[in-house]
Amino acid sequence: MPPGLPGPDDGGPAGGALLSLALASMMDDVHAHAGAVYLLAPDEPVLEMAVTAGLPRAFAAPWERIGLASRLPVADALRERRLVWIGGEDEMARVYPRIALVLPYPYTMAAMPVATDETPYGAIFVTLAAAHPPELGGLERDLLTAACRRLALRLEREAAAGRPVRREPASPDAGEIAPRTAATALVQAEHMVARLPEGLCALDVHGRVTFANAAAAALLGVPLKALNGVQLWTAMPWLNDPAYEDRFRGALISQRPMSFVALRPPNDWLGFGLHPGTDGVTVRITPAPTVSSDVPGERGEHVGPGDRTGPGPDGPARLVTISHLLNLAGALTEAAGVQDVVDLLAGEIVPAIGGRTVALLASEGGRLRVLGHRGYPDPRMLDHFEGLPLTAPTATAQVLVRGAPSFVESPQRLAQLYPNRPAVSDGMASWAFLPLIASGRAVGTCVLGYPEPHAFSADERAVLTALGGLIAQAAERARLYDIKHRLAHGLQAALLPHTLPSPRGLESAARYLPGTEGMDIGGDFYDMTGVGDRVAAVVGDVEGHNVRAAGLMGQVRTAVRAYSAAGQSPGRVMESTNRLLVDLDAGLFASCVHLHLDLPGQRALVARAGHPHPLLREPDGRVSVLDVAGGPLLGVEGDACYPTTEVPFPPGSVLALYTDGLVEAPGTDIDDALAGLAGHLALTGHLPLEDVAEGLLAHTAERRGHTDDVVLLLLRARTPVA
C-alpha cells in the first residue's frame, strides 16, 4: 500500500484529504507532475472536478464539469471502464482534438476510472512530462489501476457509512498567499537553484512569485517586495497578455523549457527563459538587445506586443475565457445534424456551465419552430412555443427579434421583464436567452436553463454571448446538412426497390447502407424481378458518390430490368446495358453482376461486368468464391462480350451478391476480407436470411468504417418447384 493513502479497512481521513492523498500518492508512483480527481454528481450524469494538483485549477476551467457522454479522456475512462492513455501531442490532436486546441503543448496523459464492479464513482487523470516514452509501462499501468481500485473501495466505504466524499476546498488564490518568511524564502531559493543555477525568479504552479532577487526586480522595474505572492502578468501591465501566460502554461504542462521576449516600456526588450519543475517554474530574465535575438538554450518563440491574441479596450482577455471558447468551438465543429448540435450542447456544454436544460428554436415564416431540446422535466412544455408568432411577449421571441441576449437571474426577474408572457413553467430558476445570429441575421434562439437562481458575471455574459454566435453557425450548417440528408435519402429510396418479390421456392434479403461522405447518396443498387418461370437479380455499382452517379444508377437498373423482361440471357443483358452506357456517354462506368435463377432446374445463370465475385454457400455449409467469367466495366467498350456461367443452385444453397464497399477498405487485403466474409457465411448461413444479412454487415462494420456505399443481396433456394 503506498504511504499516505488509507486502505479500505483502516482509519484515515474521510472526505477532507482523502482525494488529495490518493492523487498525490498516484502522482508519486508514476512521477506525474499534475492531475485531478473527478466525482460523479449525485443526481446527474456529470463529472465534477473535486481536487487538482500540480497545475492551477484555471488551466482545466473548460472541463470543471464534464458530461459523462463527452468525448474526453476522463469521461471515456469511466464510461468504458478502461485506462485511457495519450502518448503525446500528436495523439492528443488525433483522438481528442478539442483538448489539443485549448492546450496545444507536448505532454502525456493517463485517465482511469474510479469504480467498483457495481458502482461508478468518478475518474482521475494524471499528466506526465513530454519526455515520457509514448507507451505507458506495464508497472505504471498496474500502479495506476491498483490505486484507482483502492480509492473506489474507500469511496464505497464512506458512502455506506453515510459520509459521501465531495469536492475538496481549492487552494488559496493569489490574494490569500501567506507572507514569505525567511525560512520559506530560503527553501524556494534552493528549489530555484536546483532548477537553474543562475535563476533569478521562482514561480509556483499558479504563476505567483515565491522568490526573486534584486536583479530581477531591477530588470522588471518594480520594488522587490512588490513581487512577493503576485503573478508576473498581473503585476506588470506590459506582461498582461495571454500570449505570455500561454508560455508559462506550456512550460508547466509539457515540463519543457520555453522562452519569449517582451517589451518593457518604453524601449527595453527582456528575454524570459522558463525552466519548469513539478513544483513550479524558474524564470531567467535577461536583457534582449533586439526582438530577433533568442534566449539561448531553450525551446520557444518570440512574442511581443505585435503578437497579441485578443486584448480589447477593457484590457486583455483572460486565458480561461479563451480556453472556454476554444473548447466550445471545437465541440460544435463535430456536430453534423441539428440533433447532433442539441445533443452536444446538452451533453457537454450545458454541464460545463452549470446549466440543466437547453432548447434551440428557429424562425420560419414569422413564427418559432422548435428544432430540439434536452433536459426538461416535461418535454411537452416546449410544444407551447411551436408556431408561436415572433410578436409574442416572450423572451424566446423577443431576443430573436431584437438580436440581443437576455440574462434572467430569477423567476421574479423574468416576470418583471416579460409580464404578459404565457403562464408556462419549465421548472428552471434562471435563464440565458441567446440570439442565434448567422451571416448578419437572426436565425433563432438558444435557451439555457439553470435549476437555481444564477447571477451572470460580466465575463460569463461575454462567453455566453460569444457561444451564441458559435451555436448559430453550427445550427445553420446543421440545418443545411439535414435538408441535404433528407433530399439524398428521398432520392435514394425512390431509385431502389421498396420490396422484393417472394417467388415460390426462394428466400431473399437485401441491405443498402450509404457511405458517410458527401450527401449519403451514390451509385450502388440492387433489384430482383420475375422473368417468366425464372427470377432475375442484379447488384451493381456506378462510380461516384453524388446525384449524377445516382441518376445513372437509376438508368442502369431500369435497363437491366427491361432487357431481362425481354427474355435476354444474363450475358446479353450485360452487353445491351453496356452499349446503352456507351451511347449515353455519361463519363461514368459501372460494375454489375446479373443472374437468372432457374429454380426448377436448380441452377443459376450468372454474368459479371467488372464486379466482385459472388459467394456460394452449398447445402453442406461449404462456402466458395464463384469464379465467374466476366467482361470489363459497363460503359468502357461498346463491343465488349460478357459470357454467361452456369452454377448449381440446389435447395439449401445461398448466393451472396454484394458491392465492393462490403469488403474493401484502406489498408485491408481483399483476399483476407473475402475469406473472413466467407467464413462468417459458412457459420451463419443456416439462419434466417434477415439474420444472416445483419450478421454479415456487423462482421465487416469495424473494418470498412462506412466510407463507401454497401449493397448486400442474399438468395436461398428452398424446396424444388414442380
What does this structure look like?
This protein is 34% helix and 24% strand. It is built from 18 helices and 27 strands. The strands form 5 sheets. Strands 3-2-1-6-5-4 form a 6-stranded antiparallel β-sheet, sandwiched between helices. The radius of gyration is 33 Å and the shape is elongated. It starts with 17 loop residues before the first helix and ends in a 5-residue tail after the last strand. Mean pLDDT is 80; it is low at 1-15, 171-180 and 291-320.
Structure summary:
The protein is of the alpha+beta class. The chain has 18 helices and 27 strands. Helix 1 packs antiparallel against helix 5 (about 140-160), helix 14 packs parallel to helix 15 and helix 17 (about 670-685) packs antiparallel against helix 18.
In terms of topology, how is this protein built?
Layout: H1 18-30, E1 34-40, E2 46-53, E3 65-67, H2 73-80, E4 84-86, H3 89-95, H4 97-102, E5 108-115, E6 120-128, H5 138-160, H6 182-195, E7 201-203, E8 209-212, H7 214-220, H8 232-235, H9 242-254, E9 258-264, E10 268-277, E11 280-287, H10 319-332, H11 338-352, E12 357-364, E13 367-374, H12 395-402, E14 406-408, H13 411-417, E15 430-438, E16 441-450, H14 458-495, E17 506-513, E18 523-531, E19 534-542, H15 547-565, H16 570-584, E20 590-598, E21 603-609, E22 615-617, E23 623-625, E24 630-631, E25 645-648, E26 654-658, H17 670-684, H18 689-704, E27 710-717
Parallel strand pairs: 21-24
Antiparallel strand pairs: 1-2, 1-6, 2-3, 4-5, 5-6, 7-8, 7-11, 9-10, 10-11, 12-13, 12-16, 14-15, 15-16, 17-27, 18-19, 19-20, 20-21, 21-25, 22-23, 22-26, 26-27
Helix pairs in contact: 1-5, 10-14, 11-14, 14-15, 15-16, 17-18
